[in-house]
Backbone:
């Protein structure tokens, strides 16, 4: 591979490999794109208000145009009104990167990217639900994206 003086190598980008320096080599063919992260909660009390916190990152930028939507699924038993949901960052401020909607029938939070993300950067999203009225074990959560950037479904750690 020939490197040109004064031109940044693609291998200086997050997670890049030498093969990605080859002309028109696009990430995702030899190594699938990934979304990874964790989920936590503020309350385990039945019927109580519960702030859920998701911290996740991708190894590729998630685009706002064309719009990418990140889906977190598996919130079995969580109670929230369908439609627009207020999401906050780690400081409790309105998210500058995502808008959100709750899809109760799917037990799913849909996060639409409003400002392009940077690969390898952790993004925190907090939102409120009401816990189910009866005890239950923690359900398995998954995360994936579609639209502008499609990333296959993977487990979200808790």
Residues:
């Amino acid at each position: 591979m020939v490197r040109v003086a004064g031109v940044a190598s693609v291998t200086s980008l997050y997670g890049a490999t030498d093969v990605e320096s080859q002309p028109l080599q696009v990430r995702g063919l030899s190594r699938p794109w990934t979304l990874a992260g964790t989920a936590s909660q503020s309350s385990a009390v039945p019927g109580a208000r519960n702030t859920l916190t998701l911290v996740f990152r991708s190894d590729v930028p998630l685009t706002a145009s064309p719009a990418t939507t990140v889906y977190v699924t598996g919130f079995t038993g969580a109670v929230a009104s369908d439609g627009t949901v207020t999401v906050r960052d780690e400081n409790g401020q309105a998210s500058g990167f995502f808008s959100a909607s709750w899809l109760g029938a799917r037990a799913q939070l849909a996060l639409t990217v409003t400002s392009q993300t940077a690969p390898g950067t952790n993004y925190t999203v907090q939102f409120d639900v009401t816990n189910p009225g009866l005890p239950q074990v923690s359900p398995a959560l998954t995360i994936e994206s579609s639209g502008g950037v499609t990333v296959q479904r993977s487990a979200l750690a808790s």
